[in-house]
Design a protein that fits this description.
The protein is of the alpha/beta class. It has one domain: Aminopeptidase (3-Layer(aba) Sandwich). 36% of the residues lie in helices and 18% in strands. The chain contains 10 helices and 10 strands. The strands form 2 sheets. Strands 3-4-6-5-7-10-8-9 form an 8-stranded mixed β-sheet, with helices on both faces. Strands 1-2 form a two-stranded antiparallel sheet. Helix 3 crosses helix 10, helix 6 packs parallel to helix 9 and helix 8 crosses helix 10. The structure holds N-[2-(1H-imidazol-4-yl)ethyl]acetamide and zinc ion (ZN).
């Protein structure tokens, strides 16, 4: 017996014992393989957490599902039905859902009935992270040469961020995070002034014609003394070939969160999507969360190389044909990695 010199402690006397040891070793090995997606932490002490795998097929389905309701233009039936669907879906994932109803006036003097949808996971936890996206669609594709007045699908602008958050919510039911998570779906983000008009003067209660839902929520929080450790906003996170640069309001208000998110993306292999490039500021829902609610929030928002939102932005081309599972995955897996390590 040559082996018993090398491995004396596992070289059992009888063939039966050797077989039992072999079975135990195989079982232990298989148990180890069952853990999926084991990653080392992005920073700090060496705790290892199994972060679930973000399912891009599921996220894509959630984007498609919203688009199938029709353009989610405030005051329309599609908008009402989509809101009802989102509330019901978040409840199935075990979240405590609050609906904040309010109305607001637009630059073109329409009175809108709006709903912010707030889904809380583990509402008793003190340490909270806020994730957000807008669920409404712009009422006109004013950058479209042929149809500047028609509604459009908003697959990327609106539905993509919500699709990623629904897929994260689905994972939160199956595997909770240590921190409490609040998902806010803002309404009325996208009825800002047309690019071809000069808007009227703003009323006292508004700082912009854009972002009506986040302006309302940040000055009328669903829980009066609500705060969060930090927030992450997702806006236009589904298009093929997207790239996410450092957005400048995010850098101003929440530089350490920008660092955390982009470093995490890099470690997961998404540095081609989350680029380490500074870009301009986007007046988006995170600005009002930072300014009014004083919660440091970053915006993951797509720019092309020229600092614009892509040739499909606010046109009829913003439909399912531009949605990419790779982009959805890069964003979803990065956000999950970040929140499961808190
Ligand atoms: C402006 O264009 C002023 N803000 C971009 C916010 C936005 C519009 N996000 C989606 N659609
Ligand atoms: Zn938009």
């Amino acid at each position: 017996m040559r082996y018993h010199k090398i491995l004396p402690f596992i070289w059992a006397k009888s063939r039966f014992m050797r077989f039992r040891i072999l079975v135990l070793v195989v079982i232990a090995g298989l148990a180890g393989c069952g853990k999926n997606n084991e990653k080392t932490p992005p920073t700090g002490p060496a705790k290892v957490i199994n972060v679930p795998t973000f399912n891009a097929d599921s996220a894509f389905y959630f984007v498609q599902k919203q688009v199938a309701f029709g353009p989610r233009v405030p005051n329309s039936t599609a908008h009402k039905n989509t809101g009802d669907f989102l509330i019901a879906q978040l409840k199935t994932y075990g979240a405590a859902v609050k609906v904040q109803e309010f109305s607001a006036t637009t630059f073109d003097n329409k009175r809108l009935n709006l709903r912010n949808i707030i889904a809380s996971f583990n509402p008793e936890k003190k340490k909270r992270i806020l994730l957000a996206a807008h669920w409404d669609t712009r009422p006109f594709s004013d950058k479209d040469k042929e149809k500047p007045n028609a509604a459009f699908d908003g697959a990327n602008d609106g539905a993509s961020g919500v699709g990623v958050l629904l897929e994260i919510a689905r994972n939160l039911r199956q595997q909770p995070t240590d921190a409490g998570i609040d998902i806010i779906l803002f309404d009325g983000e996208d009825w800002g002034e047309r690019h071809d008009v000069t808007p009227p003067q703003l009323p006292n209660n508004l700082k912009s014609w854009w972002c009506l839902g986040s302006q309302y929520w940040s000055t009328n929080k669903h829980i009066p003394n609500y705060s969060a450790y930090y927030g992450i906003l997702l806006d236009m996170v589904g298009a093929k070939g997207s790239r996410f640069a450092f957005e400048s309001y995010s850098l101003d208000y929440a530089p350490s969160i920008v660092d955390k998110v982009w470093k995490t993306a890099g470690k997961l292999g998404y540095s081609g999507v989350f680029v380490n490039v500074k870009d301009g500021g986007v007046l988006d829902d995170h600005v009002f969360v930072n300014l009014n609610a004083k919660i440091p929030m970053v915006d993951i928002v797509s720019y092309d190389e020229n600092g614009s939102f892509g040739d499909f932005h606010h046109t009829q081309k913003d439909n399912m044909s531009i949605i990419s599972k790779e982009t959805l995955s890069a964003v979803g897996q990065t956000v999950m990695q970040v929140i499961y390590y808190e």
